[in-house]
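Board notes (copied after class):
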Amino acid sequence: MRGRMQRVDERRTRMPHDEFSLSRERLRGTPFAQIRHVAQTASTNDDMTALLGEPGTGGLTIVADAQTHGNGRRGRTWEAAPGAALLFTTALPEAIPSAHLWAVTLWTALVVAKALHALKIPAELRWPTDLLVNANKLAGILCVSRVNGDHAWVGCGIGINLLRNASMANAIEPPPAFCDDAHPVNRDELLAGILTTMHADLALLQTPRRIRVEWEQAAHLAGATYRIIRDGEEHPFDAKVLGLTDDGSLHVMRADGAYENVTMADCRILR
């Protein structure tokens, strides 16, 4: 009887399979070692926003199998079947100057692109927050922050499509891209790659202008043509991109030769 009870107790106390064991192992000893995995939440960004700036939460990652109210830019939603996408938010380990907030999204996009390329996913950057494969959206980024005067605590929210789901893909226009269209990867492998790249490139956040230059180069931005639609306007316009300004805005030349700066907050890119 004693042996039987011991076996029952072992079954009850046995830890569940850790899907993100590779990430935990690779990030051990770094500021990004904390990984909190949940089956479902409304939004990892919302969860992280409530924690930003609290003691012990710097470097924390919250990763979810599914989100019921995942948010993209400008109030759009991010939908994915449970387990079919990598959905997470990572808090920067330390507060940054509030004036540098504009650079965090660009930095995050660079990090994600590097990690995807290392796993044979040919992701391309599109200003301001998208990563594309074959001109279709593979991943999106939405950063959240808590600002206190000159300092800000930041969470980098990231959603990446991994596994193609035919019914969902066919219901979205324009159609999304998926990692397994190019090369299959699993969530743990990709999360580990992104977090280790964040750790390696953390010092870059101290030089926002360098982030701007690296992003321009990685995106092959100079000379690209974007179709842009501003808030409150019905008709988009095509413009030749000249580069980014020191606050991350898009510096463009319209077809009529007029120059202007387009901010992340007041427009969206159609292509």
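Comment from the instructor: The chain has a mean pLDDT of 87. The CA atoms of residues 114 and 187 lie 16 Å apart.
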